[in-house]
Recover the amino acids of this structure.
């Protein structure tokens, strides 16, 4: 085997290569995390964390005083009040970690929308009550009244929606305050059929998976049928073969939001 001596040129080459490796490592350590962080911040700019004034928060029973708020890009320059959606999460998202609220349902979709047609408020319930009763209608009205005074909201186009525990909260709230909303969308939830008459003519579009083992589809069926039997305006979309996650495809459906925009209290 022939041996080869290392000359000055080889040393310079090795130094150059080593410098490239060192700079590559430095870029990986410092630059990549900055780029990732910038991308994440850009994505989350669509929603911001807001806080209820202390005097309002003190009146709530089971509500985190912080919540997510989505404002469309056109909001700042708009001379008109915009429609509002209040979104209610499921039972596993209760607490004081707001990131949990964005784990599923409507909030994660909002980070991908530059100019959604609605302002969206996504509050967080605490765990002071059984999960079916964690969304307190009085809490939601306190939140709504604050939003109406603090932001450019069309009070005739306020919509309530939620999944699972949030579906229960939606049914409960519209039974106590049907006059405050233009329409409601309870998903894989349920309620008390004897409260259906109080909902009146409020448009309700419910969604549920036929194979839901967490909240049986019968819970939505009995609520919708009770509203209809009372002369109300409710309908149910059932997903054959779908379990508890009937919300992903529901919130991804543009037809739902077109329908919401058609509903107004002054029509």
């Amino acid at each position: 085997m022939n041996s080869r001596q290392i000359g000055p040129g080889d040393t310079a080459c090795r130094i150059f290569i080593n410098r490239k490796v060192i700079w590559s490592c430095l870029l990986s350590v410092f630059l990549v995390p900055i780029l990732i962080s910038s991308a994440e911040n850009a994505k989350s700019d669509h929603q911001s964390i807001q806080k209820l004034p202390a005097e309002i928060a003190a009146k709530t029973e089971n509500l985190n005083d912080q919540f997510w708020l989505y404002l469309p890009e056109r909001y700042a320059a708009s001379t008109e009040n915009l429609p509002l959606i209040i979104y209610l999460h499921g039972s596993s998202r209760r607490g004081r970690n707001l990131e949990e609220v964005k784990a599923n349902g409507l909030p994660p979709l909002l980070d991908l929308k530059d100019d959604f047609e609605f302002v969206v408020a996504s509050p967080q319930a605490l765990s002071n009550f059984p999960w079916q009763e964690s969304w307190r209608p009085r809490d939601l009205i306190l939140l709504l009244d604050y939003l109406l005074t603090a932001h450019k909201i069309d009070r005739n186009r306020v919509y309530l929606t939620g999944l699972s525990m949030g579906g229960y909260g939606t049914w409960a709230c519209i039974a106590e305050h049907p006059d405050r909303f233009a329409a409601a969308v309870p998903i894989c939830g349920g309620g008390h059929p004897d409260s259906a008459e109080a909902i009146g003519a409020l448009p309700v579009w419910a969604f549920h998976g036929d194979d839901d083992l967490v909240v049986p589809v019968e819970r939505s069926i009995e609520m919708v049928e009770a509203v209809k039997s009372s002369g109300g305006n409710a309908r149910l979309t059932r997903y054959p073969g779908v379990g508890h996650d009937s919300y992903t495809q529901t919130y991804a459906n543009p037809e739902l939001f077109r329908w919401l925009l058609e509903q107004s209290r002054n029509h």
User: Anything to note?
Assistant: Residues 254 and 260 are 10 Å apart (CA to CA). The chain has two domains: 1-44, 46-262.
